[in-house]
């Protein structure tokens, strides 16, 4: 039977992890905090993974990240995921073309694709415009 690795947490770490497990910004962060809290007990990574609905390797990876970087290592790094097709730098071009073809999303999309040299869906264009309206009006916080 393999040796079960446990973590020795300080009171401050335990408090921060407990707060993260209850009030963390994302479900994945809350799950990671909970996994680290459970590793303080002599439970195997497999049992913790089964309790949390993830895989054993994930629990081991989170443990390593916590040991190396502390609670900050459990957060998702910036820059992950797919980059936006239409960038903030394209905003002036989008505004100009929308002003010319107001209420005609098909024409707006065609002209933008030609001018920017990028292909995207109507939905992508709508999301970008909606996001930029919110950002430029100061409603985002």
Would you write up a description of this structure?
The structure is a single chain. By secondary structure, the chain is mainly alpha-helical. Helices cover 60% and strands 0% of the residues. The chain contains seven helices and no strands. It starts with 10 loop residues before the first helix and ends with a helix. The mean pLDDT is 88.
List keywords for this structure.
7 helices
Topology overview:
Layout (H helix, E strand, L loop, with lengths): L10 H13 L3 H12 L6 H8 L3 H14 L21 H10 L4 H12 L5 H16 L4
Short description:
The protein has 141 residues and is an all-alpha fold.
Give the CA-based shape.
elongated
Uncertain regions: pLDDT < 50 for 5+ in a row? none
Helical element count? 7
Main sheet overview: none
Q: What series of H and E elements makes up the topology?
A: HHHHHHH
Query: Would you report the number of β strands?
Result: 0
Task: Please give the share of residues in helix.
Answer: 55-70%
> What portion of the residues fall into strands of 2 or more residues?
under 5%
Radius of gyration: 23 Å
Distance between the termini: 53 Å
Average pLDDT metric:
88
Structural class: mainly alpha
